[in-house]
Amino acid sequence: MATPMLRTGYPDFFLSRLANIYTIIEDRYDRYKPVMPMMMFEAPSTRSFENISQISGFGQFTQLGENELIPHDERVQGFDIKFTHVRWGLGFKLGKHLSMDDLDRLFPQDGRDLADSALDTQETTAANHFNRAFNENFVGADGKVLCATDHPQAKACGSQKNRPTTH
Question: What's the structural domain count of the chain?
Answer without folding.
Answer: 1
